[in-house]
Specification:
It is a single chain. Helices cover 40% and strands 18% of the residues. It is α/β, with parallel strands linked by helices. The strands form 4 sheets. Strands 4-12-11-10-7-5-6 form a 7-stranded mixed beta sheet, sandwiched between helices. Strands 1-2-3-15 form a 4-stranded mixed beta sheet. It has a 4-stranded antiparallel beta sheet with strand order 13-14-17-16, covered by helices on one side. Strand 1 and strand 2 (34-37) form a beta hairpin. Helix 3 runs antiparallel to helix 11 (285-300) and helix 12 packs parallel to helix 14. The protein is globular, with a radius of gyration of 21 Å. The structure holds pyridoxal-5'-phosphate.
């Protein structure tokens, strides 16, 4: 007999472009750290959909903020003011480095905006080159893709946009050597997500800040994945005692509503003059209301502290696991709840086995398991997840 699950999957096979490898699971519902599929199976979600669902699924504050806003106004064109967009920009600015915001709908668009602002700002001097890092990920549209220094994502889409120079991550000297008279910025993730949870060292990020000041380059930080409390501070750069000139956000900014933002130092932001850039849906009241609720929830529920605490606890337990499986686990590394478990072999089949046992994790860069629970995760969820992972490792050893 054909089930609802079968007919949904059939629709995809017939009508949806097959550009994703999908699990044969139809998700229907989420609450907190759990997801349910169309057969009623429950999954413990310790991945949060690439760190989008940082407050867990369908957090009541986000649900009610959306519910309130949806009855008032869903969309308004950006030739008018709306209360929510202004209030959200204020929250982002006051919790970061006092910049001004441009709103869009995704991470790649936030990075496109950063690249365009950087170019237009330096256009009088004809400087346009941006240095980016090996194993970076900045998105799939052509400029962000060109900034992404991973050949596998470029394959088949050449020619890339001109003006990006790639250097190894955590190598300050390489940046200095790559600068020429056309260079205007350095762009990186303080903690690389898709590249395998690679953490910028203190000396490196501080050194980059000084180098950028010295050579009059902008420092652009892509915090699309590592921002919004993931690391135990609002933004990962806040662990380094520096500030960027431009920062990009998306993923968890709306806890699942589509929203991205570029934040720029006020004296740069003005270069994006009327007519130079825009987004139809960017900063719409619905998405902004959800994002405001995200900030309020982080504050009211003390989620930055919880992320730090649960991050420490997770690292402890995962390091203990690593000691038990020295043949499989090479290293556990992370900041707050942005944690990577580097394996000595491929990790996709391990992730699949965990899913079969009701635990959602992710594998990136072939052999790095990403462990990114929601910021409001409790010890008991971490314990339950790591117990499942431990059981799977027994078989995997
Ligand atoms: C996911 C991601 C992006 C792209 O975001 P989309 O919303 O998928 O366009 C950009 N940068 C980083 C660091 C990301 O993790």
């Amino acid at each position: 007999m054909k089930t609802d699950t079968d007919s949904t999957i059939e629709n995809f096979k017939k009508y949806v472009i097959p550009n994703y490898i999908r699990n044969p699971v139809v998700l229907t519902r989420g609450k907190g750290v759990y997801l349910w599929d169309s057969d009623g199976r429950r999954y413990l979600d310790l991945f949060s959909g690439w760190a989008v669902s940082n407050l867990g699924h369908c957090h009541p504050r986000v649900v009610s903020a959306i519910g309130r806003q949806v009855k008032l106004l869903i969309h308004a064109p950006n030739v008018f003011y709306t209360e929510a967009q202004g209030a959200l920009a204020k929250l982002i600015s006051n919790n970061s480095f006092g910049g001004q915001c441009f709103f869009c709908n995704s991470g790649t668009e936030a990075n496109e905006a950063a690249i365009k602002l950087t170019r237009i700002h330096h256009s009088p001097q004809e400087r346009y080159k941006i240095i980016t890092m090996h194993n970076s990920f900045h998105g799939r549209t052509m400029a962000s893709l060109s900034a992404t220094a991973q050949p596998k994502y470029h394959k088949g889409f050449s020619p890339m946009l001109e003006g990006f120079t790639f250097v190894p991550f955590n190598d300050l000297d390489a940046v200095r050597k790559a600068v020429d008279d056309k260079t205007c910025a350095v762009m990186l993730e303080p903690i690389q997500g898709e590249g395998g949870i690679n953490i910028a060292s203190q000396e490196y990020l501080k050194g980059l800040r000084s180098l950028c000041d010295e050579l009059r380059l902008l420092l652009i930080l892509d915090e699309v994945q590592c921002g919004m409390g993931r690391t135990g501070k609002y933004f990962a750069y806040q662990h380094y005692g520096i500030t960027p000139d431009i920062m990009t956000l998306a993923k968890s900014l709306g806890n699942g509503t589509a929203i991205g933002a570029m934040v720029a130092r006020v004296d740069l932001a003005g270069s994006l003059v009327p007519g130079s850039h825009a987004s139809t849906f960017g900063g719409n009241p619905l998405a902004c209301a959800a994002s405001i609720a995200v900030f309020e929830t982080i504050e009211r529920e003390g989620l930055l502290d919880n992320a730090s605490e649960m991050g420490r606890y997770s690292m402890e337990r995962l390091n203990a696991l690593a000691e038990g499986f020295p043949n499989v686990i090479k290293e556990v590394r992370g900041v707050g709840l942005m944690i990577g478990i580097e394996l000595k072999k491929e990790g996709a089949s391990l992730v699949k086995k965990c899913m079969d046992k009701g635990l959602l994790l992710n594998c990136t860069h072939e052999n790095v398991i990403r462990f990114m629970p929601p910021l409001n995760v409790k010890k008991k969820h971490i314990d339950a997840g790591i117990d499942i992972l431990g059981g799977v490792l027994e078989e995997y050893n």
